[in-house]
Design a protein that fits this description.
With 139 residues, the chain is of the alpha+beta class. It contains three helices and five strands; from the N terminus they run H-E-E-E-H-E-E-H. It has a single domain, classed as HIT-like (HIT family, subunit A), CATH 3.30.428. The mean pLDDT is 97.
């Protein structure tokens, strides 16, 4: 497995070098809207700890991260009035990972509604509305 590269896009987001629509931040985690959402309200949660994926994160950092994933997931579920929630996490290229900074996808789901195909950019105004709903549910 390759070493962690701090210049990945999520590392740049954490350092404020790239924009994002933040919904949550504390000392261990940062959560923001996915700009190519597969569902309305698709949110990403990343650790502030530098790690490539689940295979190299320090156990203490993972232990701190998971309650934040749950907390943001509960807010996404509530804010989007979802029927369910899909949690996805990919490791290494063969496992489907594209950005090599550990991240968890929170995808709200509704009965009878399929996920959109990957790779379609979202309307920024719509993402901002969804982010505001999620931030309100976190308050």
């Amino acid at each position: 497995m390759a070493a962690y590269d701090p210049n990945n896009i999520f590392g740049k987001i954490l350092r404020g070098e790239m924009p994002s629509l933040k919904v949550f931040e504390d000392d261990a985690a940062f959560a923001f809207m996915d700009i190519m959402p597969r569902a309305d309200g698709h949110t990403l949660v990343i650790p502030k700890a530098p790690c490539r994926n689940l295979l190299d994160i320090k156990p203490a950092d993972l232990s701190a991260l998971m309650p934040r994933v749950q907390h943001v997931g509960q807010a996404v579920f509530k804010a989007m009035k979802a029927d369910g929630l899909t949690l996805q996490q990919f490791n290494e290229q063969a496992g489907g990972q594209v950005v090599f900074h550990l991240h968890f996808h929170l995808l709200p789901r509704w009965a009878g509604v399929q996920l959109r195909p990957p790779g379609q950019m979202a309307d920024r105004a719509l993402l901002e509305q969804q982010a505001e709903k999620i931030r309100a549910a976190l308050a």
